[in-house]
Amino acid sequence: MATAPKPTAPARVYDVIVVGSGGAGLVAACAAADRGASVAVLERAPLIGGTTAISGGHLWIPCHPHLGALGLTDTREDALHYLDRITLGSTAGPVIEAFVDNGPRLVTYLERDLGIPLFAVRRPDYHPDFPGAAESRTLEPLPLDASALGPGLPGVRTSPTRPPLTSAEARTGVPAGLAEERRAKGILTQGAALVAGLVLAAARRGVDLCTGQRMGELIEEDGAVRGVVVHTAEGERVALRSRRAVVLASGGFEWNPALRSDFLPRVPALPVSPPGNEGDGLRLAMRAGARIAGMSEAWWTAAIAVPGQTYDDRPMTRNAVRELAFPGSILVNAAGHRFADEASSYNDLGKAFLAFDQQRHTFPNARAWLITDSAFRRQYPIAGLAPGTPTPSWIPTHSDLGGLAALAGIDPLNLTATVSTFNTHARNGVDPQFERGHNPHDRYNGDGGHQPNPCLGPITTPPFHAVPVTLGINGTKGGVVTDHLGRVLGSSGNPLPGLLACGNVAQSLMGPGYAGSGASLGPALTAAMTVGGEAARQLPAPRT
């Protein structure tokens, strides 16, 4: 993790104040500055980047300009058709159309104007069998040398779990020692590279990047938002004025137990994002009269919490993705039953944890385990554990499945029967129960060298292992409702003057679905580009 310098003290008056320093906040800041506005970005943490910085940095953008070089085509009609299916009609047509139409413009803006080169990721959409699905709609930033940031800029947050490799390098393999060499040189990749590039672009535009500044309240005058009151890292309370607008880009509320209890399903879930996403902007926007929607939705995932691991002095939880898709593993609940296609997209798999048993009045999948054997442990990583390394004591291990079930608290008869049935079909490369490995997305996450199905293999070699898996939250999807310009709407449906929003503090365009890798950041940054321009065009506050 980068070392955090002393927080920068903001000036007292700006044209535009952006709250939150993730990708959406930084893009909005740059777009506002490009239209002549003086801009401050306020970040409550000592490091810049928020959830974006620890992510894969992927942007899902239909019809992006790199497709032609790959010999691929995409159409507006296909993208709209696909998104209508993904969102189940939960998002207003003008909002979806604005994203599809402006997404390619975002790519050009990032590369040409902000100096952030991108490459297309060769992977299918998450639902390749849906009408309108396509390949390679995902983009990723190239590696960036963090030394370019210099001593005068704030430090960028980095992922505690992702090595400094691109997603392509992580899949195909790299020379031994490359990751360590990049760490030593300060080379950033994926989400951290995206944030670092945006920090450089913002600095070139004169944007003030101010860490250690937590928003405490909105300043409202004459029926409009005219600034914010912040609580600094030194304990001061400072009023900052905005001549034109305040942009909320402060993230979701997955680290706020009260808001989670109020809005999310009653299934235990662990945040996978950096601590600090406590819904600050959401709470204050609600107080100002903002309408909210989609509050029961989140960017769900299967997750693994490794005992003793922390991030920002809080318990750390890891996404579980490819270990669930590799051959020789299954996910079971306490009853010993499989309950989903383990290789499906992490958001869809996460939703399977929310299933409700109306007869028993329980969530039967709330507790789950990844069942593997020693052959799997020798070949594939699990939750950061390298293949072939000793299995730690927090993972129940036994020489037979019945004994493993007893250790983990799983029904032993059902687990034995489930594995036996799965093995019979896995040897033939089929999964009649959940069709694991049946589509290109599943196979993308599997082992391409394993046949006949890269996602299916028997579990036969003792000792056997049961890795505890829980529901995780990459971020929340619900938030303030905005129009196609990013203006926050009140309960009457009219914009609240001087207040805009983008990123996870706003209602997600994706609704209950997830279109493809980067379908959180792609729409968020596209909206942020529009939001920044709109913020700079807001009427200045009356002069006193």
UniProtKB/TrEMBL annotation:
Residues 151-173 are annotated as: Disordered. Signal peptide: none annotated. Residues 15-521 form the FAD-dependent oxidoreductase 2 FAD-binding domain. SUPFAM superfamilies: FAD/NAD(P)-binding domain (SSF51905), Succinate dehydrogenase/fumarate reductase flavoprotein, catalytic domain (SSF56425). Its cofactor is FAD. Pfam families: FAD_binding_2. InterPro entries: FAD-dep_OxRdtase_2_FAD-bd (IPR003953), FAD-oxidoreductase_2 (IPR050315), FAD/NAD-bd_sf (IPR036188), Succ_DH/fumarate_Rdtase_cat_sf (IPR027477). Keywords: FAD, Flavoprotein, Oxidoreductase. It comes from the Bacteria. PANTHER family: 3-OXOSTEROID 1-DEHYDROGENASE, FUMARATE REDUCTASE. This is FAD-dependent oxidoreductase. It comes from Streptomyces javensis.
